[in-house]
Amino acid sequence: MKNRLKVLRAEQDWSQADLANELDVSRQTVNAIETGKFDPSLPLAFKAARLFEMAIEDIFDDEHSTVT
Predict the structure, then answer these.
(1) Which stretches of the chain are assigned E, i.e. beta strand?
(2) Residue range 7-20: mean pLDDT, rounded
(3) Bridge partners of 2?
């Protein structure tokens, strides 16, 4: 799953540890999500969306989605 977390985090001038603290997860979890090694749970995706005041779809992109 592609995502914009790294870009959004950089725009806030946050480290991975800062974002992890905001989302109540480990820095390793943030790294794994940013690098596409881990897909966030739905509650975590909602939490990120609320944090950045964006829709989930604006942060996370399901590469396999064929919605038209």
Answers:
(1) 2-3, 60-61
(2) 98
(3) 61
